[in-house]
Amino acid sequence: MTVIEQTRAGQRKAIHGVNPVAKLIAAMVIGFSLLLTIDPVSAAVALVLEAILLVWAGLSFREFFVRTAPLWVAVPLTGLTTALYGVDSGTVHWEVGFVTVTDGSLELAVAMMLRILAAGIPAIVLFVTTDPTDLADGLAQVLRLPERFVLGGLAGLRLVGLFIDDWRSLSLARRARGVGDSGRVRRFGGQAFALLVLSVRRATKLATAMEAKGFGSSPTRSWARPSPFGWRETVLIAIGVIVGSAAVTAAVAAGTWRFIFG
Amino acid sequence: MSGARVSARGWGWRYSGRRASAVSDLTLQIEPGERVLLLGASGAGKSTVLQALAGVLGGDDEGDQRGELLVDGRNPADARGIAGLVLQDPDSQVVLARVGDDVAFGCENLSLPRDEIWRRVGNALDAVGLRVPFEQSTSTLSGGQKQRLALAGVLAMQPKLVLLDEPTANLDPAGVTEVRDAVARTVAQSGATLIVIEHRVAVWRDLVDRVIVLDPAGGVLADGSPDAVLTEQGRNLADAGVWVPEFPPATPQRTRWMESQVLLQGSALGVGRRKGVTVASGIDVTVASGRALAVSGLNGSGKSTLALTLAGLIKPHGGDVAAFPALAAGAGSEPARWKSRELLTRIGTVFQDPEHQFLSSTVRGELSIGPRAMRLPESEVDDRVDALLERLRLTALSKANPFTLSGGEKRRLSVATILAARPSVLVLDEPTFGQDSRTWRELVALLAELLDEGNAVVAVTHDREFINALADHELVLA
Q1: ipTM metric
Q2: Are residues A119 and A178 in the same domain?
Q3: Residue B89's closest chain A neighbor by CA?
């Protein structure tokens, strides 16, 4: 059940109590504003503002770097490939066959790297401080998404931990049955199918248990946990809007704005 | 609070796509507040009746209904909330990640006001004796605690009919007592009608005031006070696989050969499944030919992990497992380093959940996997498979999909698949968990036979009767 527990570990700061729906909206606002343009200025401005805001994110240094690890791998790779293969312009610094490194491709590489960080960091930080149950409550109560869909998904998420245990047992069982030596790829396929079968059976039982507790039998349902949406949520969304518009304004003012769809 | 009345008149149910009815011609009346133990051979339709009463059997596309089945005069599907159902598998019933939320789930579905929900959640957790914080993660609970959690979720809905489908079959003895006592307490408090399915009669006998036995051929075989029914039907029920205390299953006579050879030895063993997490250490253990070793101990003491380590499936975290030449036969002294195919004929492992070890789409195919991996000639493969099918009463099912078998059949098949390779050491994890007395008897007889032939058996088990019947040594993990 690691997926769920991880997000509940650690001390709870203000950010943990903010309605996850607001976090979702704030991260989407920032991400969307940065998607509109490719230039280093907008991303750099957003990144600086985010760095200041990180103080209130409720993550320790270690936690922050562990959670954002995928970004730190993706960023240099993106930078490298863009520098080598990106659209060329200006002075040519280096050329081998198809590969050319120019002023233009270098600038593009920097812009891409900053952009991934600026859009990725808020999304990850806001997500890891979110409890899935709270998110489901918010989606159903604030955004009024269908409860069958939301609670079904939430209950399914709880089964992920069981899948991991099942997968381990399936691997050991294959070794015990004498078919663990060769055909790694085929074995993986067979084992994945077995996991699918087990999962469907488990999910069916879970559905019966949910139904037996009256889930889906009446048109109305009450909620044991409130999902409040107040000034804190408004503030967080406002912060998202400010970061996004500051980035866009700075880029336009600096004359670096390059509309991505243009 | 009071109980609900249950009445059935000529009720029957046939699942879509099946030729035979699961239940037919059922006529009975259960009065409010009665506590009923529902018995019957496997396949008699006990679970179907319970699911129908809980209103979860589904509509016309799930099956055909005949006659009439009513709870308090209403169709159960329209009266959700009157009946509460607890199922067998503790893991598949937890809906939410936190204890309090999970108990609240049913109340939310009844559209109760928030204050009322949390009041009921507290009361229900008290009633089942589960005193943990509402915030606690449900995944940290033991099997017995999870079943009590499921019971609390049902009780919070204040049902007038409590339905329990083998709620203790997958629990260790401590868990069984926990759940039984919680049910006794809460039913006495609320006065709800109780119907419980369980093939271990002794667990519920003192709590129920009526026993109903379903006839696999349709209708009711016996109905009355526990003593009357068990006296009259005890022998038949025992033959059909029900555990009746007066008629315990026969245990085989063992022939213990004097000479026995050490096959496997674990010294100062430390075991664990995940890197860096050692669940038990300092274990010294010997596995010898013709001898049965039982490994017992509380849940979480590392029994299963020890078994997997002895079986060469996972590497020891400390100490070592040494295979003696009589077993290794040229394959090296560390079972964990053997190839999968080398393991096959030396150490066979039967997993706790049979479904984890099924690889084929037919029973026959399942049994031939081991012999084929040994590269035996086809005729030899067929001979072995036919003999095992016969021996374990699976011949009629040879073309069936292993996943569609009953619990007892799955267990027999999972043992048979391992025996097909004729390993010298047989390692079994909770082989008798949730089994009816008939499967139990067959399993014990089969293992005794293997032991007499000079094979070694290692069994992780909570089952005292099983230990008494077979074990030469018992290793208790703390």
Answers
A1: 0.83
A2: no
A3: A205
